[in-house]
Amino acid sequence: MEALKKRILEEGVVASDQVLKLDGLLNHQVDPVLTMQMGKEFAERFRDENITRVVTVESSGIAVAFATAYELGVPLVFARRKKTLLADPDALSERVPSFTKGIVTDIMLSRQFIHENDRVLFIDDIIANGDAARGMVKIIQRSGAHLVGFGVVVEKCFQAGARTIREQGIRIESLVRIASLSDGTVQFAE
Ligand code: G4P
Ligand code: NA
Ligand code: NA
Q1: I need a surface site. Which of 9, 36, 39, 68 has the fewest CB within 10 A?
Q2: Cα of 99 to ligand 2 centre, how many Å?
Q3: Pairing relation of β-strands 187-188 and 172-180?
Q4: Are 136 and 37 in contact (CB under 8 A)?
């Protein structure tokens, strides 16, 4: 997605060889027009899949997941993050470490909002090591719903997350793929 690459070059801040700060467009501020374009792009790529529900994890995935759900005309459900998880027989949960925050959290999705006959599209902002994403994939699979695919705005190809998910046979669509952040420079893949 060329418009997104341009914005990343303009506004992304290479914080280290591993981390690209995208506060101006994903993680702090959101551009509604650009975000709706991202949603349209994901919706087009998954249009023929009869998606019934879009799922993400709070918080940074919500805006683009909303845009995608809006374009597909289906509900958006976002998994909640909990520091302490009260035993809830109705909730599906997974414990995941967070790469940027250095803490462990539980992500939780109520069975009320995901059903066996759902065809689910999972949307997220960035994939790095993929801990959060793998947790979300497990939750979707345990719900009995069919995971149609995973749409991610930024795939960091030099970290293992996306590869480990593709190896499970899950379709991933990335809007932008980043090959390297070495020397303070964003290098796109392909
Ligand atoms: P993930 O790949 O499945 O997201 O899991 P990982 O454990 O690798 O990353 C955990 C968190 O760190 C995610 O945010 C992810 O978006 C964020 N992250 C990883 N690499 C980068 C990066 O280069 N730049 C930025 N801006 N974020 C990065 P999160 O914990 O889910 O928090 P939130 O943003 O949704 O609140
Ligand atoms: Na996220
Ligand atoms: Na994030």
Answers
A1: 9
A2: 11
A3: antiparallel
A4: no
Q: Rounded to 5 degrees, what are φ and ψ at 68?
A: -65, -45
Mean pLDDT of the chain: 95
For ligand 1, pick from 83, 126, 138 the residue to mutate: most ligand atoms within 8 Å of CB.
126
Domains of the chain: 2-83+90-168 (3.40.50.2020)
Q: What is the pLDDT of residues 69-123, one digit of tens each?
A: 999 999 999 999 986 656 677 899 999 987 667 788 899 999 999 999 999 999 9
SS3 content of the chain, % helix, strand, coil (to 5): 35, 30, 30
Confidence (pLDDT) at 74? 98
- Residue 52 clears pLDDT 70, i.e. is over it: yes
ipTM here: 0.92
Contacts of 113 (CB under 8 A, 6+ apart): 53, 75, 77
CA distance 85 to 189: 39
Model confidence, pTM: 0.95
> How many angstroms is it from 27 CA to the middle of ligand 2?
8
Report pLDDT for 103.
83
From the CA of 129, give the closest atom in ligand 1. Answer: 8
Measured in Å, residue 124 CA sits from the centre of ligand 1 at 9
The CA–CA distances, whole Å, from 132 to 74, 109, 137 equal: 23, 13, 9
